């Protein structure tokens, strides 16, 4: 078996399951025990955020070299409380979704036999008879950092975990980018199969399923089966509000038309994703803008899926100071301002705070772009600082 693992390891990255000791309801669940522990709050923040490498000595470089280094600012990402909250939510969803999905083993069967003889078999089969809401949505404005946050959270988990005892390849988190023309189950199923194939190349799923002439129904069945076979901990579907805008590589020179969310989109989202999540007991997280509310409607069931698990709407950064504590916007700006590459960086002031918020609305992506542009323009003009008036002229 060791030779087989070494041979497979040359083809893709994975880890061999090392089971942690846990107490309570997950004590005997090998899928949960194989997960790395969630870092404590401060360590979690450090793991999730991305801060560019920087030293004051960088400001001594030529203007040309510093302009090139400005590109590193595009990866600046501060783990604000909403990001850490999302990481804790996803970790909790994965653990809850693994209840009742652990692979059969002699030890598990012995526990069930023991409970059966005591007349308490329901303890090992129904988990108290409580249904867990597996469908959730993370909704927010474009540029709020939802996708980047998800990708950072995904790095907390190994891409795939091998359980030698069961010959099982466990995928804790599966991230799927919504395909264009997404109102068909076939395209969504293909996206899921392709995502699993990238993580587990030995399955040769692309050749087996995506290069043949399978029907939509067959591909959806394959996708659902693979979600179960690989014990996917959570399925995260990004840009779930897409409703058929063609990709730029398909542009034929004609007028571009963007279709509005329709009943077809609703059928795709509710009929395929929710059904797969319920049938396979795989937690589902839709990442989308508010446009998805049009696609899904304002039904009570939809509201429960969107907000029933407590995820807040990702709005522009809050500027309100409460009980003397700095706002999220102030935390972000103060952290970003330290990465000034100009030799005479202006001091961060209330005036700069207000002008940046006026032009960016407190949206992180816009803030980064404005912070980049003002420095780029200054270096191009041979200046080593900028003023509030310079920001107005951008």
Report on this structure.
There is one protein chain. A four-stranded parallel β-sheet has the order 2-7-6-5, sandwiched between helices. Strands 1-3-4 form a three-stranded mixed β-sheet, with no helix packed on it. The protein is an alpha/beta fold. It is elongated. The chain has 18 helices and seven strands. β3 and β4 form a beta hairpin. The chain has helices at 2-9, 30-33, 41-48, 63-69, 81-97, 106-117, 122-125, 146-154, 185-199, 205-210, 216-229, 263-280, 291-296, 300-307, 328-337, 350-360, 364-380, 388-392; strands at residues 15-16, 135-139, 161-163, 168-170, 173-177, 234-238, 284-288. The longest helix is centred in the last third of the chain and has 18 residues, at 263-280. α9 packs parallel to α11 (216-229) and α11 (216-229) packs parallel to α12 (263-280).
Please summarize what this structure is.
With 394 residues, the chain is an alpha/beta fold. It has helices at residues 2-9, 30-33, 41-48, 63-69, 81-97, 106-117, 122-125, 146-154, 185-199, 205-210, 216-229, 263-280, 291-296, 300-307, 328-337, 350-360, 364-380, 388-392; strands spanning 15-16, 135-139, 161-163, 168-170, 173-177, 234-238, 284-288.
